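dumping this here before i forget
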Amino acid sequence: MKINTNISAMMARNVQRLHSKSLSSSVERLSNGLKLNRGADNPSGLGTSEVVKAQVKGTNTAIHNVEESIYLYSLRDDYFQELEEMLNRMRDLAVRASNEATLTTRDLGKMDEEVQAMKREVNRKALASYQVDGGRLLFNPTDLDVIWVLDDTASMGPYANSLKNDAPSMFSQLAKAGFDLRMGVVGFDSILRNYGSTSFQKSATDFTTDVDAILTAIGAPLSGVENGIDAVNSALALGTLGGDFRANAEKMVILLTDEDSDDFEYTRWSPAEWWAPPADPGLSSAPNAAAADAIRNACIANLVAADATLHVAGVVKDSSGTLQNTPDDDYQVIASDPTINGGVYTLDTGGAWVTSITSAMLAQGDDWTVDFQVGPDSNHSLTETFKSVTTESLGIDSVNLAAVSSAMNSIDVVDRAKENLSNMRLRTANIVSRLQHIANDLAHQNINNSDFSSRLKDADMEEEIVQFTKTQLLSDTATSAQAHADSNIESAMQLIDVVKSARHIARFNDAFYNRNM
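structure:
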C-alpha cells in the first residue's frame, strides 16, 4: 500500500480527462453538426475545406450572376419583339404608299409622318432602355464626328439660321446621352471654305461662329459648279475635317440643300433627256446613265472609305421649278445604299428636319463588349459583343414615304432592317441559351462541391451519437475506477486511525498503572 504515489488514481484521472475532452468534442459536434470545428480537428483537411468552401460560395454568386444576366438579356430580346412589330408596320405603310394610283400627296404625308414618328420611337427606346455598364441595354454612346455640308445659295438662309439656332440644343442633347460630339460645317463651293475655321468644334459657340461665316458668304459669287455630290466628296477630302475624323468615332456627313439643278435626277429624266435635259437655267448638260452611276458610286466609295454615313435634308425642284418634299433622287440613292445606311429627311421651314437629324445623330450608337462572370474564379468569364439597336444600325434612317418612289425604295430598306434585327436577335438568343446551360453546369458543380465539403466538415450524427454513448459509459467507468483507487487512501487512513487508537490506549495504561503502584 502506497500513499505518496497513487498510480491507480492517476491513471484513472488521466483516462477521465481524456474522456471528458472526447465528450466535450462529441457534444460540440452534436450541437452544430460539424466534425471540423477548428484546425486541430483535422489540420490537413482544414485547408482543403476552406478552398472548397470558397468554391461553393463563389459558385453560388456565379449562379446569381448568370441568372441576372439571363434576365437582362432576355429583356433585350423582349425589346426586339416590339421592334419587330414596328418594322412590320413600317413595311405595311411603305407598301401602301407605293400605290400611286389611289393616293394623294396628303395621304403620303400622313403615312410618312407615322413612319418618322416610329423611327424616333426606335431611338427613344434605345436611349431609354435598361442601364448597364457603359450605356444602355440597347445602346452604347460613342464619340461622334459630324460634317455639315451646307448649300450656299441665298434661299438656304433660313435653314442655315435654323442650324445656327438649334446647334446648342444638339450639343446639349448629345452630351446628356453620353456622346462626345464634334461638328464642323463647310459650304458647297470651295470659295466659302475660306470663311470660318473649317475645323471640328467641340462647343456650340464655336460651331455657330463657323455657321455665321457661311451665312455671311451666302450670295457671294461662286467659284465652282454647285453640286451636292461634289461638295460631299470635297468635305471628306478636307484635311481639317474629313481628314481629321477620330479613328474610333462614329462619322456622319449631313447634306443640307434645297438645290438639285446641277445634279442628275436620273429617275425623272427619260433616256432621251440624258443629253438634252429639261430647260433649267442651272443646267448646261447632264451625264448619261453610266456616268451618273459612276459619280454616285464614287461618292459611296468615298463615304465607305471614310467609314461615314450620309444623311440628306432637302427638297427637290421638278422641271417647272416647283419645290417638292423629298431630296434629289441622286442623294437618296447614296443615303439609302446598304453600305451607307444613311437617312433622307424633308427640309421644311418649320424646323422638323432639325429634330429628325438630331434623332439620327443620337442613333449613332457603338458596339460594346460585355464580360459575363460565369464561374467562381478569375478566369471563368464569357465575353460577347453586342450592337446598339437604333435606326442607324437597323438601316432605316432612309425610310421615307413622302413620295411614291421613296416609298417603293423603303420596302427594300425595311426588309434589310428586318434581317439586321433578326441577326441581332439571334446573337442575343445565343448568349442567353449559353448562359442557361452555364447556369445548369454551375448548379451541378455546386452540388458536387457541397457534397465534397460536407464529407470534410459535416458530422455523421449516428456515428457521433454512438461515439458519445461509448465515451459516456467509459467516462462513468473511469469515475468508478478513480473512486476505487481513492479507496486505498481511505484504508490507509483507517489503519492510521487504528494505530493512533493503540497509542492512546498504551499511554493510558502506562499512566494508570504507574499511579497505582
